[in-house]
Amino acid sequence: MLQLQNEQLLAQFEDFLQQEEQFTSENIETLENTDRQVDLYQLFSELSALKSEVKKDARQQKDALGQFTNLLDTLQGGNKQLSKELERHDTNRNNAVTRAKKDLLGEVIDINDRLRATVASLHHFKPPLMERKASREFRLGLQEGLEMTLRRLELLLNSHEVIAVGAIGQTVDPYTMRVSEVVEDNKQPDGIVVEEIQRGYLYKGKLLRLAEVVANKKVS
């Protein structure tokens, strides 16, 4: 009798353990599913928040890029305008310097003309028969000094790219010469320059002063 009761108690205890084990497994699985649901929800929430932040940052970057582009365009436009102003200023300054230099060179050329005329007069000067030796030496010394000054002036003009126009023996060039007188000589070609009244000059290959010449004209 006692043994039967013991067997019944053991059987009931085993049933209880089986029920507890089943209950525990089901609860654990339910809890795991709940944790998974909670984790996925948090993940989606965080992803959504991250997406919003990324969009916000992208908009801010786009706005900043647009502002930077506008600023860059403004700076480039200002730089172009400044370059044009500097170029115009340099052009005006260079033109002013060129005009002033031409005026100065023109004055040097005038002095050169006067000296050349003086030297030519001394060359053609016929002293009296009774000219004193001292007077002759003074005249020759003056002539030599003027010729030296003329050579220096010619070198100065050449150093500034001022070149004399070679007119005598050349055909009249209307760009560099102006005919002041005409002679008639059938022995010489028509339109040839036979005399130079005033020497002409070029400055850097461009006309600085016209040459005044005497040209020949054949008589038919």
State the helical fraction: 55-70%
User: H/E order of the elements?
Assistant: HHEEEEEE
Using only CA atoms, what is the Rg?
A: 56 Å
Low-pLDDT sequence parts: none
GO molecular function: adenyl-nucleotide exchange factor activity; protein homodimerization activity; protein-folding chaperone binding; unfolded protein binding
Keywords: Chaperone, Coiled coil, Stress response
InterPro entries: GrpE, GrpE_head
GO biological process, one term: protein folding
Show the helix and strand layout.
Layout (H helix, E strand, L loop, with lengths): L1 H123 L8 H27 L2 E3 L12 E7 L9 E6 L2 E3 L2 E4 L1 E6 L4
Parallel strand pairs: 2-6
Antiparallel strand pairs: 1-4, 3-6, 4-5
Describe what this molecule looks like in 3D.
- Residues 72-99 form a coiled coil.
- This is Protein GrpE.
- InterPro entries: GrpE, GrpE_head.
- The chain is α+β, with helices and mostly antiparallel strands and 220 residues long.
- Among the domains are: 81-160; 161-219, Head domain of nucleotide exchange factor GrpE (Nucleotide Exchange Factor Grpe, Chain A, domain 2, Roll).
- Helices cover 68% and strands 13% of the residues.
- The chain has two helices and six strands.
- It is rod-shaped.
- The termini are far apart.
- The mean pLDDT is 79.
